[in-house]
Prior knowledge:
It is a single chain. This protein has helices at about 5-15, 45-50, 60-70, 80-90, 105-125, 145-150, 175-180, 205-215, 265-270, 285-300, 305-325, 350-355, 380-395, and strands spanning about 25-30, 30-35, 40-45, 100, 130-135, 165-170, 185-190, 190-195, 200, 220-225, 245-250, 260-265, 330-335, 340-345, 360, 360-365, 370. It is an alpha/beta fold and about 400 residues long. The longest helix has 22 residues, at about 305-325. The chain is globular, with a radius of gyration of 21 Å. Pyridoxal-5'-phosphate (PLP) binds near residues 104, 106, 138 and 140.
Amino acid sequence: MSTDELIENGHNYIMNTYKYNPIVIEKGEGCYLYDTEGNKYLDLVSGIAVNSLGYKNEEFINNLCNQLKKLNHCSNLYYNQPQIELAEKLIQNSSFDKVFFCNSGAESIEAALKLCRKYGKKVHNKDCYEIITMKNSFHGRTFGAISTTGQDKYHKDLEPLLPGIVYAEYNNFESVTQMVSEKTCAIFIEPIQGEGGIKPANLEFLEKVRDLCTKKDIVLVFDEVQCGIGRTGKLFAYQHYNISPDIICLAKGLGNGFPIGAMMAIEKVAQAFQPGDHASTFGGNPLAATSGKTVLDALLNKNLLKNAETQGNYLKDNLLQLKEKFPIIKEIRGIGLMLGVELSITTENILKKCTENGLLLVGAGPNVLRFVPPLIIKKEEIDKAISIISEILEEIQ
Ligand SMILES: Cc1ncc(COP(=O)(O)O)c(C=O)c1O
């Protein structure tokens, strides 16, 4: 089938929820993708902060193939070895005690919402169910997660949303305290807002919220679906802030493209779940868990965290140099390989030109260019990306 026919069939048969670029990706290698027309793209999107190990990673392929030859799925009626090993690795390298596995970021948020409400009602009182979340946040598309998302544009025509969720100003402690009451069971925060435009939380804000949660026994939840699992140069973004939440939500980068999500909690909070309280057919399936184990091994034992930090700093320096040269660049934000370039114009035209010139980038909101490449990216690839962007900015200014 020709590319045009594929695109036409995609248009005819796939539900109209995405704005697809008119290309069909066929394969990848390292940090490069190839379409069905044979065009090559340097990929700084990595499936939206997912493909940490890039494409065609030998270990990933071998581990998954070997697992597939042994066991594809067995449900959570029984233990499976990869799930237990992944759980152990996650717990031993974090400040949490227990993990629940699911299949996506939104599901990890759902699991956290349920655990927080169970905790509030069991430990405090039956009316302790209110969730404080941040304006401009993004937590996913299921009803609980979209209700927790603090952006009106995602709520349109879906109301009534999940009740008991209130929205505070991000990085504004006063605004949070004004919403706290006996009813508050949890506070949800992205340490770096992703879809909201790559906006890191202030240290002081997080420290104060942590103190408040500790004093009032409110569950502090960090959504690290996008910024976790090595993206910022540390395994978890909270480790940059020297505080730890009570619950963390993970997905994206954990599976390198194999769908997996995880919600981890400290023991005291995790205890609010009992058998039967929550479940997922595919959660922690042997293939997904093998993917997670392979990613964690690469991050912890193969210098990938260091690479994310080093190349992240190198990319940021280069972007800051572009800012000196091009006044349409207003600000560079982010940590490690999760960076945003805020422009004084919308990004649409620039993103299109990047694709035409063999560079894949994605926006974060209307006027922020987002950089979330595979964590294996090398200096030469960053140089190449910067040179393409620089030429495009030269042309449009
Ligand atoms: C911070 C954050 N939380 C949750 C989600 C939802 O994840 P998923 O699309 O896997 O459901 C996303 C997705 O972009 C995200 O960036």
